[in-house]
């Protein structure tokens, strides 16, 4: 299928956007903005009309780019972002995974920037912050899924001088979208309830680009799942993926394999060193999701698509050992002072128990513990310095990715028997009709913020709650 040009899209209702998007172009990296002398001053405008891989003028982006520019900072830096809202709806900025204050003009999810307005963020990165892969995206409640699926997301990297050099250090940010030449297509109610899935799966805004390599190259791929609701299983044919980090934290030992799994919001860094020439596929499988039984129980997902191809040239080489990256701080082992239990709610009517199927004709409640999000209410209060153990239970028939701002956690166990990683993370997929047990050190920063489902339609529908740490 050749590139037919975006001008023809939308002229017939049945044209899938993917039929017109060029494939096989060389991978493009988003523009990079790097801190100097302890500061990174950035002006970002969120607006429609971003080019997508230079081709499509209908998606939304930051400074005309989707993904937005990659921001590179170091521990101890100040990240100053002047965000201008060029959309016709509220927006704001969340620095997903950064262990920074969630208050004031920092990573504060309660700020809403009105259309046409500007807000100055000042985010102080602690000296002790781990180096790794983080990302930024809008967080204005009610608009998050629309804005992400339209293209608003970017990488945020914390660099550390002690990391070994690699031949190529690549951000691979994965989004999905449904677009016509007129712009992003809004999701219908049923797909919002299940979590929308865009028709196009994109890597750095490109459809099935080619990642070039030479045999013996050591490439670091910073994989970011910025889709609104897909849990992705990424698989590379013929070469090994050495997984060195999860959610911006270096793993105590790299795990070698050919597959990595990422829930929405998760990141993983892998090292790839191709030792023989050839062209192989990097594929992305989307885990099936099931909506509530009374919605017909339709499953979506389950397909595997080519995300990119890796094209390697050069003579075959003997495999060589991979370098070791400095391990991140080990999770705190102090005693836990408090246990809590939270429950995902996806039920009919208001005030019914989690997962109950009440009388039809009422709205469905998405929330925690039977209540939808209310920014004015504080749902949990924790003491600064405490280490808590949380059991997040999920009585619903679909898995939900649980995300807590500001305070990353260690996953102690889940009902699916997922192996533990020995490091902190900030999103965990809680299995359908299952649970996950987390150990959360509230030992870093005080403040009030949120936890939520990272299926962003669920978050917009109310599956979010507040926590104050003081
Ligand atoms: Cu990436 Cu509150 O989310
Ligand atoms: Cu959810």
From TrEMBL:
Keywords: Metal-binding, Oxidoreductase. Gene3D superfamilies: Cupredoxins - blue copper proteins. Residues 56-161, 197-284, 366-469 form the Plastocyanin-like domain. The keyword Oxidoreductase applies. It holds the Pfam family Cu-oxidase_2. It comes from the Bacteria. This is Multicopper oxidase family protein. It comes from Actinomycetospora chlora.
């Amino acid at each position: 299928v050749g590139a037919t040009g975006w001008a023809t899209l939308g002229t017939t209702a049945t044209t899938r956007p993917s039929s017109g998007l060029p494939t096989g172009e060389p991978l493009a990296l988003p523009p990079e903005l790097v801190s100097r002398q302890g500061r990174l001053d950035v002006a970002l405008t969120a607006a429609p009309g971003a080019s997508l891989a230079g081709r499509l003028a209908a998606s939304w982006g930051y400074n005309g780019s989707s993904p937005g520019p990659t921001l590179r900072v170091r521990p101890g830096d100040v990240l100053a972002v002047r965000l201008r809202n060029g959309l016709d709806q509220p927006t704001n900025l969340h620095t997903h995974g950064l262990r920074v204050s969630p208050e004031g003009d920092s990573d504060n999810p309660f700020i809403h920037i009105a259309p046409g307005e500007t807000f100055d963020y000042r985010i102080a990165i602690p000296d002790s912050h781990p180096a790794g892969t983080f990302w930024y995206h809008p967080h204005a409640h009610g608009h998050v899924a629309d804005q992400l699926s339209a293209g608003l997301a970017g990488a945020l990297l914390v660099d550390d001088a002690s990391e070994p050099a690699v031949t190529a250090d690549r951000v691979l940010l994965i989004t999905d979208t449904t677009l016509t030449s007129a712009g992003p297509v809004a999701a219908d109610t049923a797909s919002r309830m299940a979590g929308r899935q865009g028709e196009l799966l994109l890597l750095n805004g490109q459809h099935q680009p080619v990642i070039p390599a030479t045999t013996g190259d050591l490439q670091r791929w910073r994989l970011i799942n910025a889709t609104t609701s897909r849990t992705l299983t990424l698989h590379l044919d013929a070469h090994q993926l050495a997984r060195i980090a999860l959610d911006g934290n270096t793993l105590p030992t790299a795990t070698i394999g050919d597959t990595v799994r990422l829930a929405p919001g998760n990141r993983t860094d892998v090292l790839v060193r191709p030792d023989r020439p050839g062209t192989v596929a990097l594929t992305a499988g989307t885990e099936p999701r099931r909506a509530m039984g009374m919605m017909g129980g339709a499953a979506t997902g389950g397909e595997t698509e080519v995300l990119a191809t890796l094209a390697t040239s050069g003579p075959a080489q003997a495999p060589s050992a991979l370098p070791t990256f400095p391990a991140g701080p080990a999770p705190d082992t102090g005693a836990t002072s408090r246990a809590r239990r939270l429950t995902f709610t996806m039920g009919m009517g208001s005030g019914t128990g989690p997962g109950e199927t009440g009388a039809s004709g009422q709205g469905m409640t998405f929330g925690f513990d039977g209540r939808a999000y209310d920014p004015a209410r504080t749902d949990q209060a924790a003491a600064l310095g405490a280490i808590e153990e949380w059991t997040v239970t999920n009585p619903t028939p679909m898995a939900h990715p649980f995300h807590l701002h500001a305070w990353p956690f260690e996953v102690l166990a889940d009902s699916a028997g997922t192996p533990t990683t020995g490091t902190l993370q900030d999103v965990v997929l809680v299995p359908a009709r299952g649970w996950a047990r987390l150990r959360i050190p509230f030992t870093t920063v005080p403040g009030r913020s949120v936890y939520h489902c990272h299926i962003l339609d669920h978050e917009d529908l109310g599956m979010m709650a507040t926590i104050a740490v003081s």
